[in-house]
Write a structure and sequence with these properties.
Order of helices and strands: EEEEEEEHHHHHHHHH
CATH architecture of the largest domain: Sandwich
CATH class of the largest domain: Mainly Beta
Structural class: alpha+beta
Helix content: 40-55%
Radius of gyration: 20 Å
CATH superfamily of the largest domain: Jelly Rolls
Number of domains: 2
Strand content: 15-25%
Distance between the termini: 37 Å
Shape: globular
Number of helices: 9
């Protein structure tokens, strides 16, 4: 999995099951043919994956690579989401199971946004009762949302580190945030910073782990997602607020990056 950044990888579910207040695991140690995720909703358990060991509770996600011993023991009655999945690269190709020295976390990671995580968990439980043909598209989407949530929080940590490493690129990101939702020229921004467009792109990517165009798109789509869920605006109105020419163009970008249409997103994320 070397050569790919975290947010470029896509998890796709092979098997999903929700366990409610499981008193103990049937096996202390098990191995699985695919990547495993134990996502804790309530209770706690001890785990050991390779040289990683510790305890996991709500907010924690525990990853185990294929064919690796996964040791676990409940501490208190455990409600959790059992997910077996594969990783796919940006072109949709299945990544080989070997090569666990890549960027994918092994063992425990923690998600800070508990409210959004709990919302994803509730929707996952709803899919458990649906027919198989309907279940997988939605479980895939929800797993991606959990993964991208972690990636987003990780990127914020990288951004904080970049403040020390490259103050000029921090200023660049601030300018992007300030002007993201109106007419915008990357060349003008590069000129403002005293850099050529090529120098600016390379330096920004080194500091923020993505090109400035991707950073701009992410800002715009984050605002679009928020407006879809919190307002009744039309797509053209949202496009105007987010820096896009019209709703048709926004829909094209949104569907490519979010992997569902704005209409689907609004329907599935409104409470």
């Amino acid at each position: 999995m070397e050569g790919h950044r975290l947010w470029e990888l896509t998890p796709r579910i092979r098997q999903y099951r929700y366990w409610h207040r499981k008193e103990r695991f049937d096996l202390y140690e098990d191995r699985y043919p695919g990547w495993m995720l134990f996502a804790v909703e309530d209770g706690a358990f001890r785990y050991e994956v390779q040289d990683r060991r510790g305890t996991a509770s709500f907010g924690d996600l525990v990853f185990c690579p294929p064919h690796i011993p996964f040791r676990r023991e409940t501490i208190s009655p455990l409600s959790f989401h059992f997910i077996m999945f594969d990783w796919h690269d940006p072109n949709g190709n299945l990544l080989e199971a070997h090569g666990h020295d890549g960027p994918i976390p092994i063992g425990k990671i923690t998600v800070a946004d508990r409210q959004r995580l709990a919302s994803d968990y509730e929707r996952l439980k709803i899919t458990a009762g649906q027919p198989h043909s309907l279940r997988h598209p939605w479980t895939d989407h929800l797993l991606k949302d959990i993964w991208y949530l972690y990636c987003s929080e990780s990127n914020q940590a990288i951004y904080a580190e970049a403040i020390v490493k490259d103050p000029l690129m921090v200023r660049a990101a601030d300018l992007l945030k300030r002007h993201a939702y109106g007419p915008f020229s990357m060349k003008s921004l590069a000129d403002t910073l005293g850099l050529s467009p090529v120098q600016f792109t390379r330096r920004f990517k080194r500091a923020h782990n993505m090109p400035p165009t991707d950073y701009l798109t992410r800002l715009r789509l984050q605002k679009a997602c928020s407006l879809l869920v919190t307002t009744a605006m039309t797509l053209d109105q949202i496009a105007e607020r987010c820096g896009y020419e019209n709703g048709f163009y926004l829909s094209r970008v949104f569907s490519k990056k979010i992997e569902m249409s704005p209409t689907q997103y609004r329907r599935t994320h409104r409470v």
